[in-house]
Amino acid sequence: MATESGAPLAITVRPAARSSLAGPASSHVAGVSVAVAVMAIGLALPLSLFGMFLSAGLFGVLVAATGTAPIRKALARHASWRARQARRDARDRALPPASCGRGTLVELTNLVDEIERQDPEVARRFELDALLDRHVSLTLAYESAIRATRMADRTTLEYMRDTYRADPEANPRRVDLYERRLRCLAQCERTAEWLADELAMLAELIRLVAQRVACPEDLLTDDTIARQLAELDDDDAARRQLATDLR
């Protein structure tokens, strides 16, 4: 198009004006949504924490009301088991691997375990763990005494003593030393013999206790068969009486 003067007509396009309500309304809705979400989170977090504390409190009350004694007993049993295991490990470490008493210690330990399983009261009354400790101490002392006896030969000492005693020019102290060594050897032999007896008696004591615990006693007083036989006798007598009455 052109104007009357021939110049082209300029057309100006203006963008449509936005609605005056669109911007404020959307901002208001978004703000309300954010506020509601914040409030929900703020309410949910304390409620969840309150629920957790309430559950923990109820659980604690339940344990205190019903489970305290069993838990204490279980903890006491576990502590006793740990103490016995530590005691056993100490005994095993005390004896050398080549000790003559290690095999006996294994046997007696197994017997004590069996006694403890069948009758713990008997194990406590006879202090069987203390007997095992004593077995280890006696074994170590016995092996020391045996080593001491092997440090001297009686025949050689007696020969040397008699030789120097017969020589008038010999130093009398040599004779005295050989006499002392012979007396020491005799003492070592007596000590080793006593320790061997103690070890043997200790082992037999534990074996005796294990044998007594393994042997059942309640069945010896059971008169079930005698009572059943008496019932059969009464039944037979009743049948004979009934047959006599029917004749």
Please, could you describe this protein's structure?
The chain is mainly alpha-helical. The protein has a domain at 79-215. 80% of the residues lie in helices and 0% in strands. The chain is built from seven helices and no strands. It has helices spanning 22-94, 102-118, 120-125, 128-149, 154-166, 172-214, 224-246. Helix 2 packs parallel to helix 6. Mean pLDDT is 79; it is low at 1-5, 7-13 and 15-25.
| Intertermini distance | 151 Å
Mean pLDDT value: 79
Q: So what's the overall shape?
A: elongated
List the uncertain runs: 1-5, 7-13, 15-25
Give me the count of strands: 0
How much of the residues is beta strand, in percent?
Answer: under 5%
Query: Structural class from helices and strands?
Result: mainly alpha
Oligomer: single chain
Question: How many helical stretches?
Answer: 7
**Rg to the nearest angstrom?**
49 Å
Instruction: Report the helical percentage.
Output: over 70%
The main β sheet shows up as: none
List descriptors:
247 residues; mainly alpha; 7 helices; disordered N terminus
How would you summarize what this structure contains?
This protein is mainly α. Helices cover 80% and strands 0% of the residues.
Present the secondary structure layout.
Layout (H helix, E strand, L loop, with lengths): L21 H73 L7 H17 L1 H6 L2 H22 L4 H13 L5 H43 L9 H23 L1
Helix pairs in contact: 1-4, 2-4, 2-6, 4-6, 5-6
